[in-house]
Amino acid sequence: MATTADPVIGVLALQGDFREHVAALKAIGARSALVRRPDDLQSVDALIVPGGESTTMWKLATTAEMFEPVRKRIADGMPAFGTCAGMIMLADRITDAAAGQQTFGGLPITVRRNAFGRQTESFEEPIAFDGIGELAGVFIRAPWVESVEDGVEVLARVTSGPAIGRIVAVRQGNLLATSFHPELTADRRIHEFFVAMVHDRGSA
Ligand code: GLN
Fold first, then answer.
1. What is the pLDDT of residue 88?
2. Ligand 1 site: residues with CB under 6 angstroms?
3. What is the pLDDT, as a whole number, of residue 2?
4. Could you tell me the residue ranges of all domains in the chain?
5. Average pLDDT of each block of 10 consecutive residues along the chain (204 residues)?
């Protein structure tokens, strides 16, 4: 097989824990680039949308004139991975959205913001992730996936506690989203999973 250049994984760096995603990509030897302006998008093959605050990310993306360009690249098939607020940004629909809040969309799912409630704003929970196995899910004011349309693969659910059964990781085609933050742990398997998706893009 002919060798192809390693894809460049962009990390949306408007707000949130983008540095941790860059560190995770570096740790697995993937090429990465910060994405802050529309021009930055041209040199990336994929995009990670980090955790943070989706309302702030939406506003900053709009101000930076990034909202439409990112939305369009995703709609055109660029692989993307969203964690927590990033999952919200990739969802087609939000429950408990802020007034006027918009998302890049792409994943035909409905996501509930701040779904786990106040008393469990931040917690760690073992997750059984399809094809990967057990891993520690770090949840911080996390959303869950309220519902998915046909064709969306459910990759992980909460396995204990009051939120048992709730969907916390999904994939459809080139898009991957988790309610939790793999970038905040030392476990790199989900980043590896996404980079493998980027290598396989187009062949799905
Ligand atoms: N609650 C945040 C939001 O609505 C997400 C929190 C996170 O990314 N840790 O965007």
1. 98
2. 51-54, 84-85, 88, 113-114, 140-141
3. 37
4. 8-203
5. 73 98 98 98 98 98 98 98 98 96 98 82 89 93 96 94 91 98 97 97 67
Residues 133-155 as b or e (16 or more Cβ within 10 Å = b): eebebbbbbbbbbbebeeebeeb
Positions annotated as catalytic residues are 84, 181, 183
Best residue among 55, 88, 89, 184 to mutate for probing ligand 1, ranked by most atoms within 8 Å of CB: 88
Pick the CATH number of 8-203 from 3.40.50.9100, 3.20.20.70, 3.40.50.880, 3.10.450.50: 3.40.50.880
Closest to 170 (Cα-Cα) out of 201, 134, 146: 146
By CB neighbour count within 10 A (0-12 exposed, 13-18 middle, 19+ buried), where does 181 fall? buried
If we measure between CA atoms, which residue out of 158, 170, 156 comes closest to residue 124? 158
Give the pLDDT score at 4.
Answer: 57
Smallest CA-to-CA distance from 189 within 140, 147, 131 is with 131
Alpha carbon distance 57, 88 (integer Å): 10
Ligand 1 mean position, distance from CA 6 (Å): 31
pLDDT of residue 119: 52
